[in-house]
Amino acid sequence: MQVMLLIYDDEAAWERMPEAERKAIYGAYFAYTAALREAGAMIAGEPLQPTSTAHTVRLRDGAPQVLDGPYAETKEQLGGYYLIEVADMTQALRWAARCPGAAHGTIEVRPVMSMAAMAPA
Amino acid sequence: MTAAATAERIARDGYGRLLAFLLARGHGFAAAEDALADAFAAALSAWPASGVPDRPEAWLLTAARRRLVDGHRRAATAAAAAPDLLRDEAAETDAEALPDHRLALLLACAAPGVEPGARAALMLQCVLGLDAARIASAFLVSPAAMGQRLVRAKRRIAAAGARFALPGRAEVAARLPAVLEAIYAAYAAGAADPEDGGALAGEAAWLARLSAALAPEEPEALGLAALLLHLEARRPAGRDAAGRYVPLSAQDPGRWQLPAQAEAETLLRRAAALGRPGRFQWEAAVQSVHAARRVTGRTDWAAIRLLYDALLGLTGSPVVAVNRAVALAEAEGASAGLAALRAAAADPRLADYQPYWAALAALADRAGDLAAGAAARRRAAGLATDPAMRAFLLGG
Predict the structure, then answer these.
(1) pTM, 2 dp
(2) Which of A66, A67, B105, B306 has a C-alpha 20 to 30 A away from that of B6?
(3) What is the ipTM of this complex?
């Protein structure tokens, strides 16, 4: 099954962080990504630019609205993701616990729906 | 210890005793647990201020009984249950006379009909009164899934018609290994390396000591208690003042907890005197050799290697094979250890086993294969759950 690991963290704390500490976290993510890849679990995964770079788009009464900023103002923000292939939820939770972000932020673990199963016949 | 912590420890001790007692009296799991949960909560709010009563179990039983009587009335089965409840009242006047049925409860939790993945969780809930959500988190399982597992397990136990009577010696001997196995699993829950212990390590060590006290003629029960006491004695020394990971070889023996180590040694000697060696006694003996460094200033790796030889022959466990390879490297040199480690890696279960990669990194470095060492270290860091371990491996 495919599972999304959504990494939420306080991006303000990240921006205040000393360079050495930030480097250590990059190193931890580098090792984590390599372990996922070597285990054959990695499909995709990247960090995201800060929410200050985000835009939201919607159509209202046929007219587009473009706004600066993220969809929702929250205490912790979506800062990155992994899409992984695992046998079951037990494995997914184990990988989530190993994610460096689990130690300071929160990892949301969401199974992916299979579009293939929903395709019109 | 604070008043609240003392109250909690005593209340937990009483919880398991009373649940086992009520089950042995024929109450169902759901009714007994509900009643005790209320009594337990009342105790935790009252005792820290008022002091722990002289007879804490009598106090808990009185509180639980009220709730049970109410429940029976509501269920309109008061007539059927009345004699039972009257007997409870008699027992309550003399809490010393409450027979301890916890061994029967432990055996029921590890009965063949209970799925192995639920056994440890069931013991922690029934004997220590831990809540399901906390147990689930420690095992890295979703609370809903763990809740279902526990409910299913209790239904199985009830369906099997367990009477929770005091078990005979042969029954204990036959069924205790599954109990000890589950307690060991609870100790290691969520931890990458069983020796480091997980979020429930203290509670599991408590269960192991209880098992040893309830089955003193079973050497493996004594062995498991000795093992976990040794590991717990060293746990505080596994972190420095800044919270950084400290490997065993770099630990200051002065920070090891002497009373726990002494208790472990006493248990291990008693186990040895029974003349039936086994897996947990040998694992405890390994930790006993490590503990001797406090006195001798050195580690007898040749002795540890022999113990792991015996353990590997007995269990065939890949985890033991990794530990044996590390001991071999210390006793005979890095290349001998590395060869043993690479042979062990044929077992696919080691692919995600973090301590294997950490051991490979250390031994490859020492054998001069720095590229292999660096790759293994990165893999070990990527598989680590403990941030302190990860930082240690990444040199942070």
Answers:
(1) 0.90
(2) B105
(3) 0.90
